[in-house]
Amino acid sequence: MTLRLTFLVLCFLSATSLIKAEDPYLYFTWNVSYGTISPLGVPQQGILINNEFPGPNINSTTNNNIVINVFNNLDEPLLFTWNGIQHRKNSWQDGMPGTNCPIQPGKNFTYHFQVKDQIGSYFYFPTTGFHRAVGGFGGLRVNSRLLIPVPFADPEDDYQVLIGDWYKSSHADLKKMLDGGKSINRPDGILINGKSGNGTDKDKPLFTMKPGKTYRYRICNVGIKTSLNFRIQGHSMKLVEMDGSHVVQNVYDALDIHVGQCLSVLVTADQTPKDYYMVASSRFLKEVFTATGVISYEGGSGPPSPQIPEGPTGIVYSLNQFRSFRWNLTASAARPNPQGSYHYGGINITRTIKIVNSATTVDGKLRYAINGVSHTDPETPPKLAEYYMAPTKVFEYNSIVDDPTPESATKIVVKPNVLNATFRDFIEVIFVNNEKSIQTWHLDGYSFFAVAIEAGQWTPEKRKNYNLLDAVSRHTIQVYPGCWAAIMLTFDNAGMWNLRSTLWERHYLGQQLYFSVSSPARSLRDEYNVPDNAELCGVVKDMPKPPPYTI
Fold first, then answer.
1. How confident is the model at residue 356 (pLDDT cuts 50, 70, 90)?
2. Which residues contact 487 (CB under 8 A, 6 or more apart)?
3. β-strand 439-443 against 495-501: which pairing, if any?
4. Distances in Å between the alpha carbon of 346 and those of 1, 158, 349, 468?
């Protein structure tokens, strides 16, 4: 009897400890619909989440499980991606057309992912068609756990700032323009949290600060084409985090933020108590577009000065600013150990992949490409085709080579672009931009070390200029005209991961590819099975499910 009682107690304690050990869950229900919005003073159709534009912010903590039930009330298929969230072992939740069948109109789908071993500032947006151009985006923050030291004092408050370019045309008209072989050209304006600063509520504060207090501003460029510069009238900004990494805390008067990038700054309310403008303005365009938003001091009086601080000009300013960014080697990130305990500079490179972007016409229509291949999404997501052991029915691997010839930029083929990658290889990627406009690239599923950006052509001798000590670990990098950029990373996250231009017309017209990072073990230690609730489409819709991965 005593032994049996002891056994039951031990079982109870074991079960209790298992329950307590599971990380917390956050549940959300999203109703996605069309609605009329007027961010530039002209009524237009936007995409709302729970009747909100921009969408609701997700406030989470490291290792939280996030469960979002998405109801698609649009008249078109829909997917969401979580820009910068790595989805360890779980590309099934990435929300790209290469990994997921879309949510059909009138249907719903539940995303379930964990923000495993991450901290920082991110955002989400719709990936289907050209939906991103008219809304459906919002902030996603991952706070540090209480037991992990953060390299700055707790701010008085934590604010989300979503900046981006904006078009007055509907997403359908923009898509029709691209399908017809034309570019969407320049934007019509800039928004800060869905407002241009020129409407009837232009003097209504976006944020309030108490005199003498310090605030954290998380700023993300959620636009579709334009690099932006951000600054706050009369205030300096201390940079503390970028794309999920703590950085050396330099102080700036203005910061360039490229499409898809997020960063955090600390701002102290140390000026005369009144109102001030925050400003977002376009970069690298002949015509400068500007948006403003009001920050109000609590108890202060007086409108913002009409003297808007001027933004920087030219590429050199932006390039030098990139070179000033440094990884904070002594700060902890999601885990207690310092970020700098990972010595990426001492790892041997096993593969070098050169990514060359290009623009040309195919059958008289504009297309963008990587190494001569302009990606098109097949009906069956390549990840599903791969899992169901039927990739040859949908796509072929390795349509591009790692070191393309100059001729490949002029001979474009339109087809799915899927590149095999060896699990746990440490690789170097060189982005080459021979065009006259800036490029910005994002890689799902990973962070990488942005070790260099330089003008001219890359050669192996350029490696001597790499920052092999404290380059920032991030997920998005810009490449200036006539320049190259180098990144380094380990392919240690099995799955199908999208490498894309964040400039959405280029992405839509083919400037993207998928890395297939497969574990030969087909083990749950490396990758999760397809979720039970996954939508099936294309050639796998009626196929029997293959044997699941096991331990």
1. very high
2. 428, 429, 431, 448, 449, 450, 451, 477
3. antiparallel
4. 60, 37, 9, 8
pLDDT of residue 522: 84
Residue 102 contacts residue 131 (beta carbons within 8 Å): no
Compute the distance between CA of residue 260 and CA of residue 506 in angstroms, rounded to an integer.
14
Work out the number of other CB atoms within 10 angstroms of the CB of residue 8: 10
| Cα–Cα dist 353/511, whole Å | 16
Tens of pLDDT, residue by residue over 149-169, are: 999 999 999 999 999 999 999
Which of 133-147, 240-254, 406-420 shows the lowest mean pLDDT across its residues? 406-420
Strand, helix or coil at 171?
Answer: helix
Report whether 538 contacts 381 (CB < 8 A).
Answer: yes
- For the full predicted model, state whether its pTM sits above 0.85: yes
Q: What is the largest CA-CA distance in the chain?
A: 85
- What angle (nearest 5°) sits at the alpha carbon of residue 465, between those of residues 462 and 471? 125
Residue 520 near residue 543 (C-beta atoms within 8 A): no
Mean pLDDT of 18-36: 87
3-class SS string, 387-426: HCCCHHHCCCECCCCCCCCHHHHCCCEECCCEEEEECCCE
Q: Are strands 25-37 and 65-72 parallel, antiparallel or unpaired?
A: parallel
CB within 8 Å of 356: residues ≥ 6 apart: 370, 371, 404, 408, 409, 432, 434
Please report the pLDDT score of residue 200 as a whole number. 63
Which tokens in the block code for residue 252?
A: 């700036």
Residue 371: other Cβ atoms inside 10 A: 24
pLDDT of residue 2: 42
Q: Is the peptide bond before 102 cis (omega within 30 degrees of 0)?
A: no
Structure tokens at 309: 């601080």
Edge-to-edge order in the sheet of strand 473-474: 413-414, 373-374, 365-370, 351-362, 426-433, 483-490, 448-455, 473-474
Listing DSSP states for 284-349 in one string gives: S-SSPPEEEEEEEETT---PPPS-PPPPP-SHHHHHHHHHH--B-TTSB-SSSSBGGGS-GGGSPP
